[in-house]
Specification:
By secondary structure, this protein is α+β, with helices and mostly antiparallel strands. The chain contains eleven helices and 19 strands. It has a seven-stranded antiparallel beta sheet with strand order 2-1-6-7-8-9-10. The radius of gyration is 24 Å and the shape is globular.
């Protein structure tokens, strides 16, 4: 479970951005929190967060930063990536990362805190990447830190400091030698390679590395440009001889959502790399069955739902932190509300799944649906993007926000900021005058 994410000098965020998924000291919708005891400390964790803000304010950049850090962890270096499957260009071209207005070549900073295997894991990374679009800059890792249960395990900068290694003794490699490991590690630091994936994994703890690596690989899912997402079910050996595969759970859900055909199926015997869903239609009179590409028969919203819903199911089943860009685009808000409530339902969400997405739809600004600390905002100022939560306003004073307020109404009168007044009238008046 994600607890906190920070970044600095990343794209539109020149100053430090702090994104929290731990509850604040408010009493809203206590049932929607994930309660977890770890290392003698009780955490109350948000199961959802929704990010609001004008176009180009930096909402997507928060998710972009999460995905870039995830990619660096999974590859183990700060080189540009080739053959990257993500639609996030910054993942493969790291010179796109630094803030465009920052000419001081300030380092890029990442910090993440999460729970995995009943451990509090904190990881920090400070990177020298040069300025924006500096393709020939000699990159280097300035600082890298790993903390477990609030204790330093290692800190790597120009040198290497090993912390309280004894607290992870049950995870250390067989025949571990502190002196030998430290001697080899200190003489093999690479400016562009993560210590975590190299020396720490080899000389200290492959087990602990695997826990961290697998959390990023399997439990932290970021979907960039979700409108271009394409998902199809993986069939087992028993289905190989069939022509079509019908996912019963998906079809039950899509019928509730809105389906024009009788059912949705996926071709099994196909040589195509991308397997497109098909609509199965049965004529009532002749009982003739017709199979058409779903994209020509179903609505765009239904196609989007077919690609989104399996991610939601997987997140709930496996306790995944699911971060989706424009999750609700073309999908009816009632369906999104129900999905949010699924994440809030501790009888269904038993493994601590989380849902984070950005949106322009104000209908979710509802005190019966979301806590104040689950409602996030991004606003662009002269010095770059800033991020804050509705709960940051507090509950007292002129700017305080109480949980009985009409959040949607107050948002549209700019009480919370992160909204832009747009009026195209003058543009059309000028054009008409010019045409005349």
């Amino acid at each position: 479970m994600l607890l906190e994410f920070k970044m600095k000098n990343f794209k539109s965020f020149k100053e430090e951005m702090v994104f929290k998924m731990v509850s604040s000291q408010i009493k809203d919708l206590e049932h929607s929190l994930i309660s977890k005891n770890v290392n003698g400390k009780r955490f109350k964790i948000l199961s959802s967060a929704i990010i609001y803000g004008p176009n180009s304010s930096g909402k997507t950049n928060i998710m972009c930063g999460m995905e870039v850090l995830r990619s660096i962890i999974l590859t183990g270096n700060i080189q540009n990536k080739e053959n990257n499957s993500s639609l996030n260009t910054a993942v493969e071209v790291l010179e796109l990362i630094p803030n465009i207005e920052n000419d001081e070549k300030e380092p890029v900073y990442f910090y993440i805190k999460f729970l995995a295997e009943d451990m509090i894991i904190e990881y920090k990374l400070l990177l020298e990447l040069g300025s924006f679009l500096d393709m020939n800059y000699d990159r280097k890792i300035l600082n890298e830190e790993l903390h477990i249960n609030n204790s330093l395990i290692y800190k790597r900068d120009t040198n290497l400091k090993i912390g309280k290694i004894e607290i992870i003794k049950e995870y250390l490699i067989e025949n571990f030698s502190k002196e030998t490991a430290e001697k080899i590690a200190k003489t093999n630091l690479d400016d562009k390679e993560l210590f975590l994936n190299g020396m720490f994994k080899t000389l200290y703890s492959k087990r602990l590395f695997d826990i961290i690596y697998n959390w990023f690989r399997l439990s932290f899912r970021i979907v960039y440009h979700s409108d271009k997402l394409h998902i199809y079910p993986i069939t087992d050996e028993n289905e190989k001889e069939k022509k079509l595969y019908v996912d019963k759970t998906l079809n039950e859900a899509v019928r509730d959502f809105g389906l024009t055909s009788e059912k949705i199926a996926y071709p099994i015997n196909t040589d195509e790399k991308v397997i497109e869903p098909v609509s199965v239609i049965e004529k009532k009179a002749s009982k003739e069955r017709i199979v058409l590409p779903a994209e020509v028969f179903e609505s765009f919203g239904t196609i989007r739902f077919l690609n989104i819903f399996p991610l939601v199911v997987s997140a709930i089943e496996n306790g995944i932190t699911l971060v989706i860009d424009e999750f609700d685009a073309s999908i009816h808000p009632m369906a999104i509300m129900n999905i949010i409530n699924i994440f809030h339902n501790d009888e269904i969400n038993t493994k601590g799944a989380q849902l984070i997405f950005n949106t322009h739809n104000p209908i979710f600004l509802n005190n019966s649906l979301l806590r104040r600390d689950e409602i996030k905002f991004v606003e662009k100022e002269e010095n770059g993007s800033i991020h804050y939560s509705l709960s940051d306003f507090g509950t007292n004073g002129k700017n305080g926000v109480r949980n009985k307020e009409d959040y949607m109404k107050n948002y549209f009168v700019s009480k919370y900021g992160a909204i832009k007044d747009i009026d195209f009238t003058e543009i059309f008046i000028k054009k008409q005058r010019k045409d005349e």
